[in-house]
TrEMBL record:
Keywords: Signal
Natural source organism: Nostoc punctiforme (strain ATCC 29133 / PCC 73102)
Stored Pfam families: FG-GAP_3
Protein name per Swiss-Prot or TrEMBL: FG-GAP repeat protein
Top-level taxon in the UniProt lineage: Bacteria
Keyword set includes Transmembrane: no
Entry keyword Transcription: no
Length: 407
């Protein structure tokens, strides 16, 4: 993941040591780069709390489910949109969705998929999803502010050595996405506070043990992102509560290294909670968080063929857990109320080869499931209302061939 290519020579030097050097980097860059020649194959944006300055058109009360910084919504209509990547040509296409209908489609151009990565974000807090594009080979970065399927504006940022990787959050609570940089090789950390395409402040944070992995959260629910640090070797956990680039560090209780963490908000109080899964034993449990106070609840056991995704199927603002069995095609959803499963939805099974991705495509506040048929292109959407799923196909006219991937 952290390629050590020689292509970034000077940039390597820039990002290795002192804060003065980082200061140099902070100078907001400025040249407008046309989005054309290069390309990206994306990883999904990290799931993190961030409210939008714009009142969402989606009725769900929880910004985890509605923020355009978390869920792709390029035109701000409250209906989740789709990003597609053509694995043969490198073309990136955005489709604005209304239920199963493709309302509008636009191309961002062709990219070198081996080099490019993207994160979704909302850098100008207009309620429309933007992109952070990163060339992992050269270390070049750019921001693309979107307006529907059109590029509103795009600008290059300073380059950052490929050993660093970005995550998005909102550390100063102004509803404009900021960038947290972590160097997994050295343990160095930095934050760029953003205003649109401008880096307002670039700050070096303390260096962490290289065994620690950061996840962006908001454990105290104050609308300013925090950083959850987990040592996957020792099982130790800690948190940096952030106010801009100022941090207050606290230890959290440990959790054996066999467990992996993912995040949601299972009690709907806008503080990030943790779903723990032990893939060896199949055990699952939830920590609802209030600052550093943990309330733990054990959930049911599901073997390792099951994988989870977070949504809100009854629209109550409490995130629920969707489970898909990649071997049998079985599906179930746990409608959550804090640390307990309030209702278990026994959803229909389907072809185990289908790939689910979650979003609220009809904008009713309840998460739906997009099923990608990578072979035949016979995709469909499950429109969900609590424990009921209604299947509707994507029309033949909108079918995409097997070279197209979505996330
Ligand atoms: Ca935006
Ligand atoms: Ca919570
Ligand atoms: Ca729910
Ligand atoms: Ca829905």
């Amino acid at each position: 993941m952290f390629g050590n290519q020689n292509t970034s020579k000077t940039l390597n030097a820039q990002w290795t040591q002192t804060s003065e050097k980082i200061q140099a980097l902070s100078s907001p860059l400025d040249s407008v780069t046309p989005l054309s020649s290069d390309s990206f194959l994306g990883s999904k944006s990290s799931y993190q709390p961030q409210q939008s300055a714009v009142v969402s058109a989606n009725p769900n009360p929880n910004p985890y489910l509605t923020s355009a910084a978390i869920v792709p919504d390029f035109n701000g209509d409250g209906k989740t949109d789709k990003v597609w990547v053509d694995s043969t040509t490198g073309e990136i296409v955005i489709r604005l969705m209304d239920g199963t209908k493709v309302v509008e489609q636009g191309s961002l151009g062709q990219f070198d998929l081996s080099a490019y990565d993207y994160k979704i974000a909302d850098f100008n807090a207009d309620g429309k999803t933007d992109f952070l594009l990163r060339n992992k080979t050269t270390g070049e970065n750019s921001i693309v502010l979107m307006d529907g399927t059109r590029v509103g504006s795009a600008a290059a940022l300073s380059s950052v050595d490929p050993a660093w990787s970005p995550q998005i959050g909102d550390f100063n609570g102004d509803r404009k996405t900021d960038i947290f940089w972590h160097n997994a090789t050295t343990g160095e950390n930095a934050i760029w506070e953003m205003d649109g395409t401008t880096v307002v402040n670039a700050t070096v944070l303390d260096t962490t043990d290289t065994a620690l992995t950061p996840t962006i959260v908001d454990f105290d629910g104050n609308g300013k992102s925090d950083i959850f640090w987990r040592n996957a070797t020792t099982g130790d956990n800690s948190a940096w509560f952030m106010d801009g680039a100022q941090k207050t560090e606290f230890a959290l209780q440990s959790q054996d290294a066999a467990w992996t963490a993912s995040v949601g908000d299972f009690n709907g109080d806008l503080s990030t909670d943790i779903l723990w899964r032990n893939a060896q034993t199949g055990e699952n449990k939830v920590w609802t968080m209030r600052g550093i106070l943990v309330t733990e609840g054990a959930l049911g056991t599901l073997d390792s063929s099951w994988t989870s995704k977070i949504g809100d199927f009854n629209g109550d603002g409490k995130t629920d857990i969707f489970w898909h069995n990649g071997t049998t095609g079985a599906n179930t959803a746990w409608l959550m109320d804090g640390t307990t499963v309030a209702t278990e939805a026994f959803l229909p099974a389907n072809n185990a080869a289908l790939t689910p991705s979650l979003g609220d495509f009809n904008g009713d506040g309840k998460t739906d499931i997009y099923w990608r048929d990578q072979t035949a292109g016979s995709d469909n959407i499950w429109t969900i209302d609590g424990t009921t799923a209604v299947e509707n196909p994507i029309s033949d006219a909108d079918k995409l061939g097997p070279q197209w991937y979505t996330f």
